[in-house]
Amino acid sequence: MKKQFRTLDSNFSIAQALWGQLPQSALDGLRELIERYGLSLSLGDLQYLDGRWYVTHAGLLRIAHRRRCSGITTTLQKGVSDALASRWVFKATVYKSPGSKGFVGYGDADPSNVSSLVHGAEMRVAETRAVNRALRKAYGIGLCSVEEIGSFPSALEPVRRKQNTSQPAGTNGSGNGQPRLRDRLCLLIRQHQLDPALVKRYAADFCGTEVLRDASRDLVESFIDRLAAWAAKDREGLLCKLHSYAQPKETKS
Fold it and tell me: What is the largest CA-CA distance in the chain?
């Protein structure tokens, strides 16, 4: 029981660091998800977007593993897919046990319903969506997965926020009781095992400043929202992006 309370407290602390003060209804929902499915914010199993909780692909796979899923198969639906239009449809089947008839889910993706960040990867997105739907059917999870949300307009795309004239440039720390942005960023880096130096270079480039500390709070907050959603949705793609900011080592003459 004490371990369960520690787990809840830990997840509540992470939620507050990532998204600020959440309403009681959101915390109650988080508690139920943790207790029912054993999901964890520190492992990237959940995302909180537009006032709702969403399970991630990683979270669904962990549930399947804990419940000893027998296997998952995927099949490209060639008849309704169009490579020239980058439209792909997959069928996924989840087998809970060796004798299971299987739970079927379909997923589709094309440039119109995925983020611009993953254009060119529509096939992978479609397969992931199919697997997620099949897993949710197999294990009775009514919670939508974050990978199934269209183009992530509020999470992955830079958000235009009204500049706060009372907040001078370069002060991207805490204000008005809100969690410090540095703490949120550090938590994301630890949670998804990212390279801090590369993240800072990417952040500075995103904010259009030489160094991150010169960026406004609004821009830094927008970057953190983007980083959190991208890391949960496609960590490998994010790592490729961060790698592009790696500086070549200087050779000694």
Answer: 66
Q: Return d(Cα 71, Cα 96) in angstroms, integer.
A: 7
147: tokens are 């990978």
Using CA atoms, how far apart are residues 41 and 47, in angstroms rounded to an integer?
Answer: 8
From the CB of residue 22, how many other CB atoms can be counted at a distance below 10 Å?
17
Q: What's the rounded Cα separation, in Å, for the pair 246 and 195? A: 10
Beta-carbon count within 10 A of 17 CB:
18
- pLDDT tens across 57-68, in order? 999 999 999 999
Whole-structure pTM value = 0.62
Look at 82 and 225; give whichever has higher pLDDT.
82
CB distance 110 to 87 below 8 Å: yes
Helices 217-233 and 181-192, axial angle in degrees (round to 10): 20
Quick: pLDDT tens for 121-142.
899 999 999 999 999 999 999 9
Class of CATH domain 11-148: alpha beta
